[in-house]
Amino acid sequence: MNAREFGPILVKGAGDLASGVALRLHRAGFAVVMTELPYPLTVRRMAAFAQAIFDGVTQVEGVEARRCTADEVSVVLARGVIPLVVDPAATLVKRLRPAVLVDAIMAKQNTGTRLEDAPLVVALGPGFTVGVDCHAVIETDRGHELGRVLRQGSAAPDTGLPGALPGLPPTASRVLRAPQAGYVTPHCAIGDTVAAGTLLATVGEGEAAPAPVLAPFAGVVRGLIHPSVRVEAGMKIGDLDPRARPAYCFTVSDKALAVGGGVLEVVCAYFLRGA
Question: Residue 47 in contact with residue 19, Cβ under 8 Å?
């Protein structure tokens, strides 16, 4: 049986983890539809389908996503492309009536997903409880449990600390945060190799002096938020990778693949075993 016969799977969110989920489902043969904000907060844009919101179309590891309206979803799906709809309220849930809904927003809290939204509701990470908000939760915390399917309870609580990468200085964080509110003006590109102290971006708006964002260590710029997105002070706006492998900026991460594998396990079990 062709997996597309099961109908489209709706994925809320199109950031890097959501893109890992969509990529694995699409490659397994399922029809995938995604929703996003009009100004996505995605940092790892070169490995996320959310980039199609800005560019109209994008590819992640050879898989294409295209921004479209709700009326164009069926046409885009027929081309073998992932439709991406600006739909912050997820109105497509009622319109598509998907058999599977995946909440991959990664807001660390439930922003509106309900157990009744689809016959199978899967959620990523903390903020959801099995049997209350969804039918299964996928663990997103790095470590031994990453990607594990939880059939009861909740994922590990959010620690607020980014996962460490090999080569990261002990007192440094790979996450770049906005020093003040405003818009990010990049001074380098995703994939660039930079030295410690390099000016990566400035943040500001209006008459306020732009505040610099400097590289805390040498590495590769793995992500930067889009310059059209207004940010608040302290918000995550970038990611610096100490491994110095530019290719990693343009492919789905090990974490996203693990989480995507967990979702694929749940979906296959549901359709093939009724579990």
Answer: yes
Quick one: the chain helix, strand, coil %, rounded to 5? 25, 25, 50
Q: Which residues contact 256 (CB under 8 A, 6 or more apart)?
A: 16, 17, 19, 20, 21, 23, 47
Q: Is 62 left (phi over 0), alpha (psi -120 to 50) or beta?
A: left
Mean pLDDT of the chain: 94
Q: What is the largest CA-CA distance in the chain?
A: 61
pTM exceeds cut of 0.70: yes
| pLDDT digits 0-9 by tens, 83-106 | 999 999 999 999 999 999 999 999
Residue 105: CA count within 13 A, CB half-sphere = 19
Same domain assignment for residues 238 and 260: no
CATH number at residue 233: 2.40.50.100
Q: For residues 122 and 105, what is the distance between their CA atoms, to the nearest angstrom?
A: 12
In a domain, 170, yes or no: no
Residues in contact with 1: Cβ distance below 8 Å, sequence separation at least 6, in sequence order: none
- Show the domain range for 221: 175-242
